[in-house]
């Protein structure tokens, strides 16, 4: 029976790793979503936890249990599951295609072609490709020389910043996002398991 216990413990730990790992993949994203791994990990936690308690309570294995600790951990695990399930359902609804409108679609007006195209400059690091004619063109990729405001008497140009340039802004974690709430609750569950004796 110890082998069964060990296998269920592995499932329980893999479930926890899925919840925490899925959360960590979304921490820095601008629009965090609940990965499927978080939901399945929460399901594995909610199922394998009571199985472990049942095995220990039945005397099939020689492990002591603390009922108060298990009760708190079960409540937190259920909260992780509910938050992950509702967050995943919300994400699925937002990604679902909208139903077709009853009105006929109005075509968008055509964008006129520019009169004369500006010559493209190779992006930094791709200067060797310029000799072969392979350059990256377009306003989002190419850098164009633009005049800069300079001190009186100074002249010069600098490359216009690309889309990734600009002042560094720190992203703030939105704790109201379901995946962040589920991950934080999962970490609380880990701390309860480790620190409560």
Please give a structural write-up:
With 197 residues, the chain is mainly α. It contains five helices and two strands, in the order H-H-H-H-E-E-H. Strands 1-2 form a two-stranded antiparallel ribbon. Helix 1 runs antiparallel to helix 2 and helix 1 crosses helix 5. The longest helix has 29 residues. It is elongated and about 80 Å long. About 16% of the residues have low confidence.
Report a brief summary of the structure.
Helices cover 50% and strands 3% of the residues. It is mainly α. The chain starts with a helix and ends with a helix.
Q: What is the secondary structure topology, with strand pairs?
A:
Elements: H1 2-26, H2 36-57, H3 67-95, H4 127-130, E1 145-147, E2 157-159, H5 178-195
Antiparallel strand pairs: 1-2
The mean pLDDT is 76
Lateral arrangement of strands in the main beta sheet: 1-2
Query: What best-fitting shape do the alpha-carbon axes yield?
Result: elongated
Uncertain segments are: 125-148, 156-162
Residues in β-strands, percent: under 5%
Q: Work out the number of β strands.
A: 2
What attributes does this structure have?
197 residues; mainly alpha; two-stranded antiparallel sheet; 5 helices
């Amino acid at each position: 029976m110890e082998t069964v216990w060990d296998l269920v413990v592995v499932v329980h730990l893999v479930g926890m790793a899925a919840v925490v790992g899925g959360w960590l993949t979304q921490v820095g994203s601008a629009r965090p979503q609940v990965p499927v791994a978080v939901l399945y990990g929460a399901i594995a936690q909610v199922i394998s936890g009571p199985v472990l308690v049942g095995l220990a309570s039945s005397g099939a294995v020689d492990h002591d249990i603390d009922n108060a600790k298990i009760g708190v951990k079960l409540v937190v695990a259920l909260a992780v599951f509910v938050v992950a399930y509702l967050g995943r359902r919300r994400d699925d609804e937002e990604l679902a295609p909208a139903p077709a409108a009853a009105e006929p679609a109005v075509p968008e007006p055509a964008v006129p072609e520019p009169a004369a195209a500006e010559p493209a400059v190779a992006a930094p690091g791709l200067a060797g490709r310029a000799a072969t004619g392979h350059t990256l063109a377009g306003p989002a990729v190419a850098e164009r020389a633009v005049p800069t405001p300079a001190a009186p008497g100074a002249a010069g140009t600098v490359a216009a910043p690309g889309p990734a340039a600009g002042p560094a802004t720190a992203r703030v974690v939105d704790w109201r996002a379901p995946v962040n709430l589920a991950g934080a609750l999962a970490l609380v569950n880990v701390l309860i398991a480790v620190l409560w004796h």
